[in-house]
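Researcher: Next sequence.
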Amino acid sequence: MEVLSFCHRSTASSPLPGFIVFFLICYVHKMESARFTVIGPDQPVTAIVGEATVLPCHLSPRMSAENMEVRWFRSEFTSFVHLYQHGKDQYEQQMPEYHERTELLKASIMDGNVALRIVNVRPSDEGQYRCFVQDDVFYEEAVLDLKVEASGSAPQISVEGYQDGGIRMVCQLAGWYPEPEVLWRDRSGQLLSSSTKTKSKDGRGLFEVKSSIIITENSNQSLSCCIRNAYFNLEKEPSTFYISDFFFPRMSPWPVVCSVTLVILLVFISLTLFLFKLRGKHLDTISKLQVDLEWRRSLSNAVTVTLDPDTAHPNLILSEDWKSVRWGEKRQRLPDTPERFDSWGCVLGCEGFTSGRHCWEVEVEVGGGGCWAVGVARESVGRKGGIGLSPEGGIWAVERWEGKFQALTSPVTSLPLSRAPSRIRVCLDCDRGQVTFIDAGDEAPIFTFPPGSVPGERIRPWFWVLGSQLRLCP
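Model: Next structure:
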Protein backbone atom coordinates (compact mmCIF):
# COMPACT_ATOMS: atom_id res chain seq x y z
CA MET A 1 0.00 0.00 0.00
CA GLU A 2 1.34 3.41 -0.93
CA VAL A 3 1.19 5.87 1.90
CA LEU A 4 0.57 9.47 0.88
CA SER A 5 1.92 12.24 3.18
CA PHE A 6 0.45 15.74 3.18
CA CYS A 7 2.14 18.79 4.74
CA HIS A 8 -0.11 21.91 5.07
CA ARG A 9 1.53 25.44 5.14
CA SER A 10 -0.44 28.65 5.27
CA THR A 11 0.46 30.92 2.36
CA ALA A 12 -1.62 33.96 3.46
CA SER A 13 -0.43 35.78 6.61
CA SER A 14 -2.71 37.87 8.90
CA PRO A 15 -2.82 41.66 8.15
CA LEU A 16 -2.81 42.63 11.87
CA PRO A 17 0.99 42.68 12.49
CA GLY A 18 1.58 44.82 9.39
CA PHE A 19 -1.02 47.38 10.55
CA ILE A 20 0.62 47.67 13.95
CA VAL A 21 4.05 48.20 12.37
CA PHE A 22 2.61 50.88 10.04
CA PHE A 23 0.93 52.67 12.97
CA LEU A 24 4.11 52.67 15.03
CA ILE A 25 6.16 54.03 12.13
CA CYS A 26 3.66 56.89 11.58
CA TYR A 27 3.50 57.67 15.29
CA VAL A 28 7.27 57.75 15.66
CA HIS A 29 7.55 59.94 12.55
CA LYS A 30 5.01 62.38 13.94
CA MET A 31 6.74 62.48 17.30
CA GLU A 32 10.06 63.21 15.61
CA SER A 33 8.68 65.95 13.36
CA ALA A 34 6.25 67.68 15.73
CA ARG A 35 7.65 67.43 19.25
CA PHE A 36 10.14 70.11 20.25
CA THR A 37 11.11 72.39 23.12
CA VAL A 38 11.41 76.18 22.90
CA ILE A 39 14.55 77.38 24.68
CA GLY A 40 15.47 80.91 25.73
CA PRO A 41 18.35 82.31 27.80
CA ASP A 42 18.55 81.45 31.50
CA GLN A 43 19.73 84.95 32.42
CA PRO A 44 18.07 88.29 31.60
CA VAL A 45 19.07 89.93 28.32
CA THR A 46 20.65 93.37 28.80
CA ALA A 47 19.97 96.17 26.29
CA ILE A 48 21.19 99.76 25.92
CA VAL A 49 18.68 102.58 25.34
CA GLY A 50 18.80 103.79 21.73
CA GLU A 51 20.67 100.72 20.45
CA ALA A 52 19.53 97.36 19.06
CA THR A 53 19.27 94.09 20.98
CA VAL A 54 18.51 90.45 20.14
CA LEU A 55 16.20 88.23 22.20
CA PRO A 56 17.57 84.68 21.67
CA CYS A 57 15.18 81.75 21.16
CA HIS A 58 15.54 78.39 19.37
CA LEU A 59 13.96 74.96 19.03
CA SER A 60 15.41 71.79 20.48
CA PRO A 61 16.07 69.50 18.75
CA ARG A 62 17.12 71.71 15.87
CA MET A 63 14.46 71.66 13.14
CA SER A 64 13.06 74.05 10.57
CA ALA A 65 10.54 76.61 11.85
CA GLU A 66 9.94 78.07 8.39
CA ASN A 67 6.35 76.75 8.20
CA MET A 68 5.52 77.21 11.89
CA GLU A 69 3.88 80.11 13.70
CA VAL A 70 6.34 82.20 15.75
CA ARG A 71 4.69 84.72 18.08
CA TRP A 72 6.59 87.08 20.38
CA PHE A 73 4.32 88.74 22.95
CA ARG A 74 4.39 90.17 26.46
CA SER A 75 1.33 89.85 28.74
CA GLU A 76 -1.48 89.62 26.15
CA PHE A 77 -1.37 86.79 23.59
CA THR A 78 -3.38 88.79 21.03
CA SER A 79 -1.31 91.96 21.50
CA PHE A 80 1.91 90.75 19.93
CA VAL A 81 5.35 92.29 19.67
CA HIS A 82 6.06 90.37 16.44
CA LEU A 83 4.20 87.65 14.53
CA TYR A 84 5.56 85.27 11.85
CA GLN A 85 2.79 83.19 10.27
CA HIS A 86 2.18 81.38 6.98
CA GLY A 87 5.81 81.90 6.00
CA LYS A 88 5.90 85.68 6.38
CA ASP A 89 5.77 88.50 8.96
CA GLN A 90 2.32 89.80 9.95
CA TYR A 91 2.12 93.46 11.01
CA GLU A 92 -1.62 94.26 10.87
CA GLN A 93 -2.30 94.01 14.63
CA GLN A 94 1.20 94.59 15.98
CA MET A 95 1.49 96.66 19.18
CA PRO A 96 1.89 100.29 18.03
CA GLU A 97 4.92 100.92 20.25
CA TYR A 98 6.87 98.23 18.35
CA HIS A 99 5.91 99.39 14.84
CA GLU A 100 8.91 99.28 12.48
CA ARG A 101 11.22 98.32 15.40
CA THR A 102 11.18 94.49 15.27
CA GLU A 103 12.67 91.86 12.96
CA LEU A 104 12.55 88.07 13.15
CA LEU A 105 16.05 86.84 12.26
CA LYS A 106 15.34 84.30 9.52
CA ALA A 107 18.92 83.51 8.45
CA SER A 108 18.93 80.41 10.68
CA ILE A 109 15.20 79.69 10.81
CA MET A 110 15.83 76.38 8.99
CA ASP A 111 17.90 75.37 12.04
CA GLY A 112 15.15 76.33 14.50
CA ASN A 113 16.53 79.77 15.37
CA VAL A 114 13.63 82.22 15.92
CA ALA A 115 15.47 85.10 17.65
CA LEU A 116 13.88 88.56 17.64
CA ARG A 117 15.79 91.79 17.01
CA ILE A 118 14.51 95.06 18.52
CA VAL A 119 16.00 98.35 17.36
CA ASN A 120 16.05 101.75 19.08
CA VAL A 121 15.49 100.21 22.54
CA ARG A 122 13.36 102.26 24.94
CA PRO A 123 12.97 102.10 28.73
CA SER A 124 9.37 100.93 28.19
CA ASP A 125 10.71 97.82 26.41
CA GLU A 126 11.97 96.45 29.75
CA GLY A 127 10.13 93.45 31.15
CA GLN A 128 9.09 89.90 30.34
CA TYR A 129 8.75 88.47 26.81
CA ARG A 130 7.34 85.15 25.59
CA CYS A 131 8.65 83.22 22.58
CA PHE A 132 5.70 81.09 21.38
CA VAL A 133 6.14 78.52 18.57
CA GLN A 134 3.31 76.37 17.16
CA ASP A 135 3.40 73.54 14.60
CA ASP A 136 -0.07 72.32 13.69
CA VAL A 137 -1.71 71.54 17.08
CA PHE A 138 1.53 71.26 19.05
CA TYR A 139 3.07 74.35 20.64
CA GLU A 140 5.63 75.34 23.25
CA GLU A 141 6.92 78.65 24.62
CA ALA A 142 9.88 80.12 26.50
CA VAL A 143 9.89 83.10 28.86
CA LEU A 144 12.78 85.55 29.08
CA ASP A 145 13.47 88.92 30.71
CA LEU A 146 14.82 92.07 29.07
CA LYS A 147 16.70 94.56 31.24
CA VAL A 148 17.22 98.06 29.85
CA GLU A 149 20.11 100.34 30.84
CA ALA A 150 21.22 103.85 29.97
CA SER A 151 24.46 105.31 31.28
CA GLY A 152 23.96 109.06 31.13
CA SER A 153 26.07 112.09 31.86
CA ALA A 154 28.80 112.17 34.48
CA PRO A 155 27.81 113.88 37.75
CA GLN A 156 28.33 117.64 37.82
CA ILE A 157 28.92 119.48 41.14
CA SER A 158 27.95 123.14 41.57
CA VAL A 159 27.58 125.66 44.41
CA GLU A 160 23.98 126.74 44.91
CA GLY A 161 24.39 129.17 47.83
CA TYR A 162 24.62 129.55 51.60
CA GLN A 163 22.32 127.59 53.92
CA ASP A 164 22.29 126.73 57.63
CA GLY A 165 25.74 128.23 58.23
CA GLY A 166 27.33 126.29 55.40
CA ILE A 167 27.47 125.99 51.64
CA ARG A 168 24.82 124.09 49.72
CA MET A 169 26.44 121.83 47.10
CA VAL A 170 24.41 120.28 44.28
CA CYS A 171 25.21 117.19 42.19
CA GLN A 172 23.23 116.83 38.93
CA LEU A 173 23.03 114.15 36.27
CA ALA A 174 20.75 113.23 33.36
CA GLY A 175 20.04 110.46 30.87
CA TRP A 176 20.18 107.45 33.26
CA TYR A 177 18.05 104.31 33.43
CA PRO A 178 17.05 102.74 35.73
CA GLU A 179 17.07 105.36 38.48
CA PRO A 180 20.67 105.63 39.71
CA GLU A 181 21.93 106.09 43.25
CA VAL A 182 23.77 109.35 44.03
CA LEU A 183 26.69 108.92 46.45
CA TRP A 184 28.50 111.71 48.28
CA ARG A 185 31.93 110.82 49.70
CA ASP A 186 34.55 112.69 51.71
CA ARG A 187 38.30 112.75 51.05
CA SER A 188 38.80 109.32 52.65
CA GLY A 189 35.98 107.76 50.64
CA GLN A 190 33.46 107.63 53.51
CA LEU A 191 29.81 108.11 52.53
CA LEU A 192 28.10 111.39 53.44
CA SER A 193 24.35 111.85 53.94
CA SER A 194 22.69 114.10 51.39
CA SER A 195 20.01 116.53 52.56
CA THR A 196 17.57 116.50 49.64
CA LYS A 197 17.04 114.64 46.40
CA THR A 198 14.70 115.31 43.49
CA LYS A 199 14.14 113.22 40.38
CA SER A 200 12.20 113.46 37.12
CA LYS A 201 11.99 111.81 33.70
CA ASP A 202 12.66 113.31 30.31
CA GLY A 203 10.70 112.68 27.12
CA ARG A 204 12.49 109.36 26.52
CA GLY A 205 11.73 108.05 30.01
CA LEU A 206 15.31 108.57 31.27
CA PHE A 207 15.98 109.81 34.80
CA GLU A 208 17.25 113.25 35.75
CA VAL A 209 18.47 113.41 39.36
CA LYS A 210 19.50 116.33 41.57
CA SER A 211 21.04 115.72 45.01
CA SER A 212 22.26 118.36 47.46
CA ILE A 213 24.35 118.43 50.64
CA ILE A 214 25.31 121.12 53.18
CA ILE A 215 29.07 121.52 53.81
CA THR A 216 30.14 123.47 56.90
CA GLU A 217 33.56 124.96 57.72
CA ASN A 218 34.17 122.36 60.43
CA SER A 219 33.29 119.43 58.17
CA ASN A 220 35.43 117.78 55.54
CA GLN A 221 35.69 120.41 52.80
CA SER A 222 36.90 118.03 50.07
CA LEU A 223 34.07 115.92 48.68
CA SER A 224 33.12 113.93 45.60
CA CYS A 225 29.89 112.86 43.94
CA CYS A 226 29.56 109.62 41.97
CA ILE A 227 26.68 107.69 40.44
CA ARG A 228 25.95 104.02 40.98
CA ASN A 229 23.57 101.94 38.92
CA ALA A 230 23.05 99.10 41.38
CA TYR A 231 20.86 97.25 38.88
CA PHE A 232 23.83 96.66 36.59
CA ASN A 233 26.58 97.11 39.21
CA LEU A 234 27.84 100.13 37.27
CA GLU A 235 29.49 103.26 38.75
CA LYS A 236 30.39 106.51 36.99
CA GLU A 237 33.70 108.16 37.81
CA PRO A 238 33.24 110.72 40.61
CA SER A 239 33.48 114.49 40.34
CA THR A 240 35.61 116.02 43.11
CA PHE A 241 35.31 119.52 44.60
CA TYR A 242 37.35 121.38 47.23
CA ILE A 243 35.98 124.36 49.18
CA SER A 244 38.42 126.92 50.59
CA ASP A 245 37.85 128.61 53.97
CA PHE A 246 37.48 131.88 52.09
CA PHE A 247 34.05 130.81 50.78
CA PHE A 248 32.46 130.19 54.18
CA PRO A 249 30.40 133.05 55.66
CA ARG A 250 31.90 135.28 58.40
CA MET A 251 29.82 137.00 61.07
CA SER A 252 29.94 140.83 61.41
CA PRO A 253 27.56 143.46 62.86
CA TRP A 254 26.24 144.55 59.50
CA PRO A 255 25.07 141.08 58.39
CA VAL A 256 23.25 140.78 61.74
CA VAL A 257 21.44 144.09 61.22
CA CYS A 258 20.59 143.17 57.66
CA SER A 259 19.40 139.73 58.75
CA VAL A 260 17.05 141.16 61.39
CA THR A 261 15.64 143.67 58.91
CA LEU A 262 15.18 140.95 56.34
CA VAL A 263 13.40 138.70 58.85
CA ILE A 264 10.95 141.48 59.77
CA LEU A 265 10.28 142.16 56.10
CA LEU A 266 9.76 138.47 55.35
CA VAL A 267 7.36 138.11 58.29
CA PHE A 268 5.28 141.00 56.97
CA ILE A 269 5.23 139.59 53.44
CA SER A 270 4.43 136.08 54.69
CA LEU A 271 1.54 137.36 56.81
CA THR A 272 0.11 139.23 53.84
CA LEU A 273 0.42 136.18 51.57
CA PHE A 274 -1.12 133.98 54.26
CA LEU A 275 -4.21 136.20 54.49
CA PHE A 276 -4.64 136.15 50.70
CA LYS A 277 -4.14 132.38 50.63
CA LEU A 278 -6.65 131.89 53.44
CA ARG A 279 -9.18 133.93 51.53
CA GLY A 280 -8.47 131.90 48.38
CA LYS A 281 -8.90 128.60 50.22
CA HIS A 282 -12.20 129.83 51.64
CA LEU A 283 -13.48 130.70 48.17
CA ASP A 284 -12.15 127.40 46.80
CA THR A 285 -13.95 125.44 49.52
CA ILE A 286 -17.22 127.22 48.72
CA SER A 287 -16.72 126.44 45.02
CA LYS A 288 -16.08 122.74 45.74
CA LEU A 289 -19.17 122.57 47.95
CA GLN A 290 -21.25 124.12 45.18
CA VAL A 291 -19.95 121.60 42.64
CA ASP A 292 -20.58 118.70 45.04
CA LEU A 293 -24.11 119.99 45.72
CA GLU A 294 -24.82 120.24 42.00
CA TRP A 295 -23.69 116.63 41.48
CA ARG A 296 -25.86 115.37 44.31
CA ARG A 297 -28.86 117.23 42.87
CA SER A 298 -28.19 115.66 39.49
CA LEU A 299 -28.62 112.15 40.99
CA SER A 300 -32.37 112.58 40.77
CA ASN A 301 -31.94 112.59 36.96
CA ALA A 302 -29.82 109.42 36.80
CA VAL A 303 -29.90 107.80 33.36
CA THR A 304 -30.54 104.16 32.52
CA VAL A 305 -27.59 102.57 30.77
CA THR A 306 -27.58 99.29 28.84
CA LEU A 307 -24.76 97.40 27.13
CA ASP A 308 -24.32 97.44 23.35
CA PRO A 309 -23.85 93.79 22.19
CA ASP A 310 -22.60 94.96 18.76
CA THR A 311 -19.44 96.35 20.42
CA ALA A 312 -18.77 93.47 22.87
CA HIS A 313 -15.55 91.44 22.59
CA PRO A 314 -16.27 87.80 21.51
CA ASN A 315 -15.23 86.49 24.95
CA LEU A 316 -17.75 88.69 26.79
CA ILE A 317 -21.11 87.20 27.79
CA LEU A 318 -23.97 89.70 28.18
CA SER A 319 -27.20 89.05 30.09
CA GLU A 320 -30.51 89.01 28.22
CA ASP A 321 -31.47 92.43 29.56
CA TRP A 322 -28.03 93.85 28.56
CA LYS A 323 -27.42 94.96 32.16
CA SER A 324 -24.52 92.71 33.17
CA VAL A 325 -21.36 91.36 31.53
CA ARG A 326 -18.86 88.69 32.45
CA TRP A 327 -15.75 87.15 30.93
CA GLY A 328 -16.18 83.76 29.26
CA GLU A 329 -13.31 81.36 28.61
CA LYS A 330 -14.67 80.36 25.17
CA ARG A 331 -14.53 82.82 22.28
CA GLN A 332 -17.98 83.14 20.65
CA ARG A 333 -18.55 83.09 16.90
CA LEU A 334 -19.63 86.69 16.27
CA PRO A 335 -19.32 88.88 13.15
CA ASP A 336 -16.10 90.89 13.15
CA THR A 337 -17.69 94.29 12.46
CA PRO A 338 -15.84 97.64 12.70
CA GLU A 339 -17.79 98.43 15.90
CA ARG A 340 -16.62 95.32 17.81
CA PHE A 341 -13.56 95.23 20.13
CA ASP A 342 -11.33 92.33 19.03
CA SER A 343 -8.31 92.36 21.39
CA TRP A 344 -9.42 93.85 24.70
CA GLY A 345 -12.44 92.58 26.68
CA CYS A 346 -14.36 95.85 26.24
CA VAL A 347 -17.99 96.80 25.59
CA LEU A 348 -19.68 100.20 25.21
CA GLY A 349 -23.02 101.37 26.49
CA CYS A 350 -25.86 101.83 24.00
CA GLU A 351 -26.42 105.40 25.15
CA GLY A 352 -24.33 108.34 23.99
CA PHE A 353 -24.16 111.86 25.44
CA THR A 354 -23.11 115.20 23.94
CA SER A 355 -24.48 117.67 26.52
CA GLY A 356 -25.83 117.88 30.05
CA ARG A 357 -25.05 115.85 33.18
CA HIS A 358 -25.57 112.10 33.43
CA CYS A 359 -24.98 109.58 36.23
CA TRP A 360 -25.17 105.78 36.42
CA GLU A 361 -24.00 103.15 38.90
CA VAL A 362 -22.10 99.91 38.39
CA GLU A 363 -21.73 96.99 40.76
CA VAL A 364 -18.18 95.61 40.51
CA GLU A 365 -16.67 92.34 41.67
CA VAL A 366 -14.39 92.95 44.67
CA GLY A 367 -13.07 89.48 45.55
CA GLY A 368 -11.19 86.96 43.41
CA GLY A 369 -8.39 87.60 41.00
CA GLY A 370 -10.45 89.22 38.25
CA CYS A 371 -9.71 92.62 36.72
CA TRP A 372 -12.14 95.31 35.54
CA ALA A 373 -12.47 98.96 34.61
CA VAL A 374 -15.45 101.35 34.36
CA GLY A 375 -15.71 104.84 32.89
CA VAL A 376 -16.47 106.60 29.61
CA ALA A 377 -14.96 106.67 26.13
CA ARG A 378 -15.19 108.64 22.92
CA GLU A 379 -17.55 107.02 20.44
CA SER A 380 -14.61 107.01 18.00
CA VAL A 381 -12.36 105.08 20.41
CA GLY A 382 -10.21 102.43 18.72
CA ARG A 383 -11.77 98.96 18.65
CA LYS A 384 -9.13 96.88 16.87
CA GLY A 385 -5.76 95.70 18.18
CA GLY A 386 -4.03 97.40 21.09
CA ILE A 387 -5.85 100.45 22.49
CA GLY A 388 -4.55 103.15 24.81
CA LEU A 389 -6.19 102.95 28.24
CA SER A 390 -5.80 106.67 28.98
CA PRO A 391 -7.35 110.03 28.02
CA GLU A 392 -4.90 110.16 25.10
CA GLY A 393 -6.51 106.96 23.81
CA GLY A 394 -10.02 108.35 24.31
CA ILE A 395 -10.79 106.60 27.64
CA TRP A 396 -11.44 108.09 31.11
CA ALA A 397 -11.86 105.35 33.73
CA VAL A 398 -10.80 103.74 37.01
CA GLU A 399 -9.69 100.12 37.19
CA ARG A 400 -8.85 97.21 39.49
CA TRP A 401 -5.72 95.48 38.15
CA GLU A 402 -3.75 92.77 39.99
CA GLY A 403 -5.06 93.86 43.38
CA LYS A 404 -4.38 97.57 42.76
CA PHE A 405 -7.03 100.29 42.43
CA GLN A 406 -5.99 103.14 40.14
CA ALA A 407 -7.16 105.85 37.74
CA LEU A 408 -6.24 105.40 34.08
CA THR A 409 -4.29 108.62 33.69
CA SER A 410 -0.99 108.72 31.82
CA PRO A 411 0.89 107.42 33.76
CA VAL A 412 -1.67 105.71 36.00
CA THR A 413 -2.59 107.30 39.36
CA SER A 414 -2.72 105.00 42.40
CA LEU A 415 -5.87 105.65 44.45
CA PRO A 416 -5.41 105.74 48.26
CA LEU A 417 -8.17 103.28 49.13
CA SER A 418 -7.78 100.26 51.38
CA ARG A 419 -9.98 98.32 48.99
CA ALA A 420 -11.89 98.95 45.78
CA PRO A 421 -15.58 99.92 46.32
CA SER A 422 -18.27 97.41 45.42
CA ARG A 423 -20.53 100.00 43.77
CA ILE A 424 -19.21 102.92 41.70
CA ARG A 425 -21.20 105.94 40.49
CA VAL A 426 -19.95 107.42 37.20
CA CYS A 427 -20.86 111.11 36.73
CA LEU A 428 -20.34 112.71 33.31
CA ASP A 429 -20.64 116.48 32.81
CA CYS A 430 -20.48 117.02 29.06
CA ASP A 431 -20.75 120.81 29.35
CA ARG A 432 -17.72 121.03 31.66
CA GLY A 433 -15.81 118.16 29.98
CA GLN A 434 -15.40 116.42 33.35
CA VAL A 435 -15.79 112.86 34.70
CA THR A 436 -16.19 112.10 38.44
CA PHE A 437 -16.20 108.69 40.19
CA ILE A 438 -17.95 108.30 43.57
CA ASP A 439 -18.20 105.39 46.01
CA ALA A 440 -21.96 104.83 45.95
CA GLY A 441 -21.76 103.07 49.32
CA ASP A 442 -20.60 106.02 51.45
CA GLU A 443 -20.80 108.89 48.89
CA ALA A 444 -17.03 109.41 49.19
CA PRO A 445 -15.32 110.84 46.07
CA ILE A 446 -12.89 108.45 44.36
CA PHE A 447 -11.30 110.42 41.51
CA THR A 448 -12.10 113.29 39.14
CA PHE A 449 -10.72 113.95 35.67
CA PRO A 450 -10.54 117.80 35.73
CA PRO A 451 -12.78 120.10 33.66
CA GLY A 452 -11.83 120.23 30.02
CA SER A 453 -10.42 116.69 30.03
CA VAL A 454 -13.26 115.19 27.98
CA PRO A 455 -13.57 116.61 24.43
CA GLY A 456 -16.80 117.99 23.06
CA GLU A 457 -17.95 114.95 21.09
CA ARG A 458 -20.33 112.03 21.65
CA ILE A 459 -19.33 110.14 24.82
CA ARG A 460 -20.50 106.61 25.74
CA PRO A 461 -20.22 104.44 28.89
CA TRP A 462 -17.23 102.08 28.68
CA PHE A 463 -16.51 98.80 30.49
CA TRP A 464 -13.57 96.35 30.52
CA VAL A 465 -13.71 92.85 32.07
CA LEU A 466 -11.10 90.08 32.47
CA GLY A 467 -12.02 87.06 34.62
CA SER A 468 -14.61 89.18 36.42
CA GLN A 469 -18.20 90.47 36.22
CA LEU A 470 -19.88 93.92 36.13
CA ARG A 471 -23.56 94.75 36.56
CA LEU A 472 -25.40 98.00 35.82
CA CYS A 473 -27.64 99.04 38.70
CA PRO A 474 -31.29 99.88 38.01
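Model: Helices lie at 16-34, 253-298. Confidence is low (pLDDT under 50) at residues 1-13, 26-33, 244-248.
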